[in-house]
Amino acid sequence: MTEKYNIRETEQKWRHVWQDKNVFAASEDLSRKKYYVLSMFPYPSGRIHVGHVRNYTLSDVVARLRKTQGYNVLHPMGWDAFGLPAENAAMERGLLPEPWTDQNIAQMKEQLNCMGLSLDWSREVTTCKPDYYRHEQKMFLDFLKKGLAYRKESIVNWDPVENTVLANEQVVDGKGWRSGAPVERRKLNQWFLRITDYAEELLADIKKLERWPEKVRIMQENWIGKSQGLALDLEICGTNRTLAIFTTRPDTIFGASFAAIAPDHPLAQELCADKDGFDDFIKQCQAGGTSEEAIAQAEKIGFDTGHKVQHPFIPDRQLPLYVANFILMDYGTGAIYGVPAHDQRDLDFARKYKLPVRPVIIPSDHDPGTYDIADEAYSGDGILAHSGFLDGLTAAQARDAVIRCCEESGIGTGKTRFRLRDWGVSRQRYWGCPIPVMYRVSDGACIPVPEDQLPVRLPDDIDYNEPGNPLDRHPTWKHTTCPETGEPAIRETDTFDTFFESSWYFLRYADAGNDALAFAKDKADYWMAVDQYIGGVEHAVLHLLYARFFTKALRDCGYLDCDEPFTGLFTQGMITHETYQDQDGQWLYPTEVQKAGGGHAKISDNSPVKTGAIIKMSKSKRNTIDPQDILDTYGADAARLFILSDSPPERDLEWSESGIEGAWRYINKVYRAVCGSGIEDIQPASAHDGQISEQALALLRLTHQTIHAVTADIENFHMNKAVARTRELFNTISAFRPENDTEKQTLRFAIESFIKISAPMIPHLCEELWAFLGHKTLICETPWPVADNSFLAADTVTIGVQVNGKVRATITLPQDADSKQCETLALAEESVQRAIDGKQIRKVIVVPGRIVNVVVG
Questions:
Q1: Backbone phi and psi for residue 733, each to the nearest 5 degrees, phi listed first
Q2: Phi, psi of 158 (to 5 degrees)
Q3: What is the pLDDT of residues 510-554, one digit of tens each?
């Protein structure tokens, strides 16, 4: 085999072989240990981008490794197909969302297949299809029976561009997470799921997620936000009313200078409805979002009710009562007392309205008599002062003392509260799963749709000519009959938040062909939990938290026995690339731009564009690279290899044409080297009998060490290290010149081992080379090599790796490793890459067996 390697034909050939032999189809087998590996499923935008290539390559490497290690592997794929982007795109094109979505899925599936992914397509799910969403409608009815779903009027985040409600998690910097439009507050009837019923369990079980990134666990802990505090009733002066408040800082109570309630607090209208300017104030409050982040960033404004509340411990101090825009009705009681000296929001408010600022917690290195607050509130520890019976106590002691005193006097109790709020799942849009309830016209009673009438399907004759929800104005679809009385009824015209679908799709894969059930319990119990889940960290408090809640809620409804959906989680970095921007703000890519002098570039019409911008790709911002040209030109193996080798997978990766070209050249070099090695008819030898040359022994030792190290690297997601080690082994193989049959046998073993450990990363080439060596079995079904321990302990050395003279890592390598090997492994270390941080590498100083120093600047 001396002809040139035809990448396109070869890759297509092996994909057909895998498909024809149904190699990657999974089935339940209780005699085998299962391994469920899953990447977050994509939204069918129409084309994959390089972020998809990275995400699915990572899961594919893991799936192929585990399969060859003997596991029963489930590696499925599906489509997160509901949502506003599809609806908006269809409207722009004068289409219905479904055919547009189906077309996109067909295109993306073809592209994903070109990547050589070991997917079980027999379990494919598409969330916009009735055979999928009928089951989540049944789940909702079960939640309703269990008391986990309810409807109430609520202040919601309203996206005025997408004309729908957003969950708090979908509000970023006060703007809609997709549209970027400033979010407004509106009061609407909404359906909610009681995720707060699981707050304690969700928080406690984070400790079980040992194979999750620490940053994601911390983000979830903070989002759930358990806090101990005081529930306290304050007397409203001159009335027989009290104001219920909740505070997590009862130790600061002597520093209170005002009280405040949320704009939607029942007392707000009662106390202020007839006051001039109040309606305008409420409208101003409604112009911002309801999330804590949006409120924290907004200017703090208030409306004086004209009433005061009595301080519980200071008889002659009455606190002015305001309606304030930074108080959340859904957190605590919707009312607070403000302590400006020790809370920044309170301080900003107090300065605006010229209220007293009274420090009561004094840092240990300050004098209580002179300590003052300037522009920054003090929230640290200290000793109580100006606080009556609390003086001299620490903050923790004072907190307990105030709670105890309030409980003894009957005006308050210690309480545990959570930052987490119930999940609002109603969305005012067409392209989503219909909520399976109706409202009887005669009395407004909410009636669940009978299970034998599921699914409630979306109509296919909608009108987009008017703004708003097409379901709400549909002339016939929403009109139905009450199953209890036969009277007229109106269907719920809201649809589910699309996170509803993604909160259980991983369970559907366990039994995707089941028409009667979402999944059979025994199959879910076999496959769950997902052993390795892969996706973006941006989902830490959205999808990942909802999926954990859904799993627990479905467990309690009898669907399965699993407590947590994902035992292992890996969050990959973003893909970045250099782009150019024209004078109209349009992003251009390097292939579209001709560089010019003066720090600018010019396109064909000579309009100036900005250069050198490194941006993160995002399908919602329409700035992604379509990798199809890459796959067509260089092949899937080259794309996979570049994705895996360029940087640690949890870090951002800068896409470059030179990088993919380098991977392509390596693919061809490997093909030529193996096919020209002359060892087709030689039997491999993995050990020796003492009659082996030094060069053969060194190759044998390196081969076993590489097998051992690459196995660990892949299992630990050190993919760039795995690539570096396989390339190091290949370089040694290429330089090896066998002088007798024994050395040829050693070379054959080294080459076969190299092919086996490279196969998860560059599977098409490895199948071709494996067949060239005369094997009748597929490499993807060939057992993973196991290193001989006798070759692992001897002749290795651990050396330090410095960046600009400061030790950043250590690496273990053979004692006889040359300078190039030392440099390659040193630069693959994550901590070294982090220290380099994109700076130019000026030189690498290597003292073999002692130290590597990377000089950057």
A1: -60, -45
A2: -115, 125
A3: 999 999 999 999 999 999 999 999 998 888 888 999 999 999 999
Q: Are strands 569-572 and 532-536 parallel, antiparallel or unpaired?
A: parallel
* Per-residue H/E/C for 23-80: CCCCCCCCCCCEEEEEECCCCCCCCCCHHHHHHHHHHHHHHHHHHHCCCEEECEEEEC
Separation in Å, CA 198 to CA 203, 224, 300, 815? 8, 10, 33, 54
CA quadruple 56, 57, 61, 67: dihedral sign: positive
Residue 239: other Cβ atoms inside 10 A: 11
Q: Which long-range contacts does 7-13 make (Cβ < 8 Å, 24+ apart)?
A: 7/634, 7/635, 7/637, 7/638, 7/664, 7/667, 7/764, 8/632, 8/635, 10/764, 10/765, 10/768, 11/114, 11/116, 11/635, 11/636, 11/637, 11/764
Q: Give me the torsion for CA of 246, 247, 250, 254, rounded to 10°.
A: -90
The pLDDT score that the predictor gives to residue 621 is: 42
Q: Do 302 and 183 contact (CB within 8 A), yes or no?
A: no
Residue 351 pLDDT exceeds 80: yes
Q: What pLDDT shows up at residue 622? A: 44
In order, the DSSP letters of 728-749 are HHHHHHHH----SHHHHHHHHH
Q: For residue 402, with 0-12 CB atoms within 10 Å meaning exposed, 13-18 middle and 19 or more buried, which class applies?
A: buried
Amino acid residing at 635:
G
Quote the CA–CA distance of 184 and 181 in Å, as a whole number: 9
Question: Strands 841-847 and 851-856: what pairing?
Answer: antiparallel
Scanning the structure block, which residue is given the tokens 């703000």? 585
The three state secondary structure string of 595-647 is: ECCCCCEECCCCCEEEEEEEEECCHHHCCCCCCHHHHHHHCHHHHHHHHHHCC
766 closest CA partner among 774, 681, 758: 758
Tokens of 582: 């024209």
When pLDDT is averaged across residues 545-569 and rounded to a whole number, the result is 97
Please state, in angstroms and rounded to a whole number, the distance separating the CA atoms of residues 737 and 696. 9
In Å, what is the CA distance from 503 to each residue of 139, 320, 428, 545, 565?
A: 11, 45, 20, 9, 10
Determine the Cα–Cα distance for residues 224 and 201; give it in Å rounded to an integer: 10
Question: How many angstroms separate the CA atoms of 222 and 203, rounded?
Answer: 9
Q: What is the pTM of this model?
A: 0.83
* Run of H or E including 724: helix 719-735
Contact 746, 668 (CB under 8 A): no
Q: Distances in Å between the alpha carbon of 595 and those of 578, 604, 657?
A: 13, 11, 16
Tell me the two tokens of residue 610.
Answer: 């900005």
Give the separation between CA 39 and CA 257, rounded to whole angstroms. Answer: 52
Distance CA 198, CA 218 (A): 17
Q: Which of 340, 327, 333 is nearest to 185 (CA)?
A: 327
> pLDDT tens-digit profile of 92-111?
888 889 999 999 999 999 99
